[in-house]
């Protein structure tokens, strides 16, 4: 393998992608030689125009052969190729100033430019994300977005809870900290030489805007506090979310809740997720709308959604914020024994909100999703959490993205659903399914395929995907504090009446 040729191909690729200028060509070549620990370079006669992935695959093979990478693992390969890509990443101030220039034209143009840059520099590993399996399932709540995630390892709630109580590691303090920008990484921490963040001011505090390396939807962004401080939902949260939508009106932005079980995967560092995408929940309609007389021009609606959503709308973002804070305080203290809702047990508080802000024309819209993290002997993982009978599909927390109607399902499901489909299409599925990795799906698969079985594996796989989407809708119902039956809707209405005071 001719490493000079590969270095030339990679540098020429970066020029073509406009990551660097022609004038930077020799300089960047020399930077690459240093990172590859080679002193010689022989100008190749010609270099092919290949895509990044195939050039990098060859460089990684060379690095393994030459002992620059010790073990052929994804972790070590990622540490190595990110170091090389860092050569082509402009310094943060240069990127931020370019973002500013684009933003003068329009916020849409700024985020679109930055998104393309993140893909080009391979911070967003497009090739890996393409492996995710995605589909849509029609339900009574509209079409839900389904993803089997093959690009990011999953964490279970116990691990998340454990991580919350872990002492902060020395540097960077966590995976989200802005100190990751440019960091070389180590075996237990990803390399971030090609990460760039854009400073943003929210509620007069320093925050940073960046993209998520695991894109679940268009322009999937993360907005993180400059200080490493824990997730907490307060009135300030609403102020920041609404301010962000004022600056980027084409984006939604939401926060995970601040309690274990109903929160996201990182509770130790305050952060939000944003993006240029319309989620199924944003399309869900109001079932009942009322005025909130205490807040000028603000309406509150109960939304047709399996989780319990109060939707605020108003043209004045300060009034919307005040209304949201009032509802947050009301909810934190609210109990309704007939609906199984207890604000606290034995001195532990259980209630919080998953908030999502967006613009609706001129108006500011804030969806407040009511959450409760109480557990019981029947539901030790959480009462308003996926129940045991659906754990074969998903047992992880229902975080912000799922709340909005996009299922992020564990990677194991790809193989499991495929094998389940094969057995359904084969002879005597009744016995075959109870063997191996399909055993946990057997009862469900037999029930949902009754009277619909064919010998086509593809048809059976489509059927299972559809049914998985329906299970996801059911899971969202488990996470809903007010159920969708008559008694649940009446209980929700009682809560809505209390917020009018
Ligand atoms: Zn942090």
From TrEMBL:
Q: Where in the cell is it found?
A: Cytoplasm
Which pathway does the UniProt entry assign to this protein? Carbohydrate metabolism; galactose metabolism
Record domain Galactose-1-phosphate uridyl transferase C-terminal: where: 246-443
Known catalytic reactions: alpha-D-galactose 1-phosphate + UDP-alpha-D-glucose = alpha-D-glucose 1-phosphate + UDP-alpha-D-galactose
The name under which this protein is listed is: Galactose-1-phosphate uridylyltransferase
UniProt GO MF annotations: UDP-glucose:hexose-1-phosphate uridylyltransferase activity
- List the NCBIfam families hit by this protein, alphabetically: galT_2, PRK05270.1-2
Q: Which residues form the Galactose-1-phosphate uridyl transferase N-terminal domain?
A: 20-230
Family (UniProt)? Belongs to the galactose-1-phosphate uridylyltransferase type 2 family.
Q: Which residues form a coiled coil?
A: none
UniProt keyword Transcription, yes or no = no
Q: Which domain of life is it from?
A: Bacteria
Q: Which UniProt keywords apply?
A: Carbohydrate metabolism, Cytoplasm, Galactose metabolism, Nucleotidyltransferase, Transferase
**Which E.C. number(s) belong to this protein?**
2.7.7.12
Give the species this sequence originates from: Bacillus daqingensis
């Amino acid at each position: 393998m001719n490493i000079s040729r590969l270095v030339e191909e990679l540098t020429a690729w970066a020029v073509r992608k406009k990551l660097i200028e022609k004038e930077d060509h020799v300089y960047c070549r020399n930077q690459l030689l240093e990172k590859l620990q080679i002193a010689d370079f022989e100008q190749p006669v010609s270099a092919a125009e290949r895509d990044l992935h195939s050039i990098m695959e060859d460089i990684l093979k060379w690095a393994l052969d030459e002992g620059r990478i010790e073990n052929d693992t994804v972790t070590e390969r990622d540490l190595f190729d990110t170091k090389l890509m860092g050569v082509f990443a402009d310094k943060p101030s240069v990127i931020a100033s370019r973002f500013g220039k684009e933003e003068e034209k329009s916020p849409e143009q700024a985020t679109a430019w930055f998104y393309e840059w993140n893909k080009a520099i391979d911070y967003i590993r497009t090739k890996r994300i393409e492996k995710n399996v995605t589909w849509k399932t029609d339900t009574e709540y509209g079409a839900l977005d389904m993803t089997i995630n093959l690009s990011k390892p999953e964490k279970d709630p116990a691990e998340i809870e454990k991580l919350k109580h872990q002492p902060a590691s020395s540097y960077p303090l966590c995976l989200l900290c802005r100190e990751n920008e440019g960091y070389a990484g180590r075996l237990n921490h990803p390399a971030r030489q090609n990460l760039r963040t854009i400073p943003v001011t929210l509620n007069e505090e320093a925050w940073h805007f960046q993209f998520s390396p695991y894109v679940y939807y268009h322009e999937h962004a993360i907005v993180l506090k400059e200080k490493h401080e824990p997730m907490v939902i307060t009135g300030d949260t609403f102020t920041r979310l609404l301010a962000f939508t004022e600056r980027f009106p084409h984006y939604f932005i939401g926060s995970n809740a601040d309690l274990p079980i109903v929160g996201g995967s990182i509770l130790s560092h305050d952060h939000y997720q944003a993006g240029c995408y319309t989620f199924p929940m944003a399309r869900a309609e109001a079932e009942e709308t009322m005025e909130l007389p205490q807040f000028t021009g603000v309406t509150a609606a109960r939304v047709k959604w399996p989780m319990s959503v109060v939707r605020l709308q108003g043209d004045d973002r300060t009034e919307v914020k005040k209304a949201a804070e009032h509802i947050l305080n009301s909810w934190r203290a609210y109990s309704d024994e007939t609906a199984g809702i207890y604000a606290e047990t034995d001195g532990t508080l259980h209630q919080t909100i998953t908030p999502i802000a967006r613009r609706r024309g001129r108006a500011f819209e804030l969806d407040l999703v009511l959450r409760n993290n109480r557990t019981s002997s029947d539901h030790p993982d959480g009462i308003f959490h996926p129940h045991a009978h659906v754990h074969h599909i998903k047992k992880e927390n229902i975080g912000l993205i799922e709340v909005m109607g996009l299922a992020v399902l564990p990677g194991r499901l790809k193989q499991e659903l495929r094998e389940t489909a094969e057995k359904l299409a084969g002879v005597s599925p009744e016995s075959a399914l109870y063997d191996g990795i399909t055993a946990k799906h057997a009862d469900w698969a037999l029930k949902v395929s009754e009277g619909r079985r064919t010998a086509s594996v593809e048809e059976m796989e489509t059927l299972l995907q559809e049914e998985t989407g329906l299970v996801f809708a059911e899971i969202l119902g488990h996470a809903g504090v007010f159920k969708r039956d008559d008694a649940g809707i009446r209980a929700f209405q009682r809560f809505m009446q209390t917020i009018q005071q």
